[in-house]
Amino acid sequence: MLRVRDDDAGAFEELVRRYQSRLVRLMQTLAPHTDLAEDLAQETFLRVYRARERYEPGAKFSTWLFTIAGNVARNAKRTASRRHEISEMDAPRFLGASDDSGPLLATTALDASGMMPVRLAEGDERARLVRAAVASLSERQRMALILSRFENMNYVEIAETMGLTTKAVKSLLSRARVGLKESLDSYMQSGVLDEDLHVSQSLPSTSKMLEQFQEPHRSARSKPDNNGKSTGDPSGGDA
Description:
Family: Belongs to the sigma-70 factor family. ECF subfamily.
Domain RNA polymerase sigma-70 region: 15-83
Distance between the termini: 23 Å
GO biological process, one term: DNA-templated transcription initiation
Structural class: mainly alpha
Region (Disordered): 203-239
Strand order of the largest sheet: 1-2
Keywords: DNA-binding, Sigma factor, Transcription, Transcription regulation
């Protein structure tokens, strides 16, 4: 990133190649709908380039990048919400045709994201259940979970990225795990996720499916709050 700051065009191209697929996958999870993922990833890189002269060498680049990405995604959601208020015709694209369709649209985004650590295959009942459960979480819980489990960030890094304290991050992750368990328990008891997906008796237990989301051992990587420097979004994006 220091080379990018010094206007090295080749360095910026290398940076985009290194992070583009990860950023697109994140946007497919956070964006109003998956069609926007690549555009929002490009917008994020554009903000990075515009803010290159303000990049602080002490800041971890991935933390800085995902902070900007989170702001870009939130701005996109606000824009989508305003469009929904103007025209009901846009509702199926952004919010779903009914109150029940929102989780299904979110599940579709997760289907395409490749973020889940289970092998995705057509008709993989277990994977669809877990993805739907993740989609039912709040945006902040979902982002904290993604950064923790799939970007391998520690508490301090997640806190810097999301503009929170480490205590708040721990609380988010704890509530996310509780939410996942409740969603999966509900699906297992009812036997139905939606009209197209019925839970079979051969699925593993809820606790077994949640093993991938158990609390990681962070003591070796974590550091005290006062050592973590918040980088924010130097590009001036809305928080």
